[in-house]
Predict the 3D structure of the following.
Amino acid sequence: MQVVDQSLLLAIRAGDVADDSVISFAPLVPRNARFLILGSTPGAASIAAGQYYAHSRNAFWPIMACVTGIVANAPYAERCAALGRAGIALWDVVARCRRQGSLDSNIDEASIVLNDFDKLLATHPTIGRVLLNGASAAKWFKPVAQRFPHLTVIRLPSTSPANATWSFERKRDAWLAAFRDTSS
């Protein structure tokens, strides 16, 4: 898998891309970031809204409401600001790929280009814990994580509605435990 920086993504966004191309959003990283939450890549609802975790049934924002105290359906800018105040950064593992629909299982793995974590982590050295939103994010971040042994990396259940085997309560409890446990 290749790595790309955000300046290339801006150039790609400006040009012609295939209908099945998916391009990551820019990272949301507060100056005081201690946590980095990584998803796999934006789904169709997020792309349409231009917002992280925009699908109405995704449990991400309701879980973050439990972490930050913000109302889950507050305006997007307020939810992002609440993450920042809590020291939480947000990004995706995949910078760009080809995918039909929104399921990670439909991603053409040969098309995956990873985001530039070397640059992100060098410019934000206060990040000490990476929380991976689901199996795909964990799978694609694994080779990156090996280069950063100082990080605590935790795979969490996907907040996606496609992860129907986990109830909201189980997802919430797993995520809350990852924020509480600072012993590792």
About this structure: Strands lie at 2-4, 21-23, 35-39, 88-92, 94-98, 113-115, 129-133, 152-156. The domain at 24-92+117-180 is CATH 3.40.470.10 (Uracil-DNA Glycosylase, subunit E).
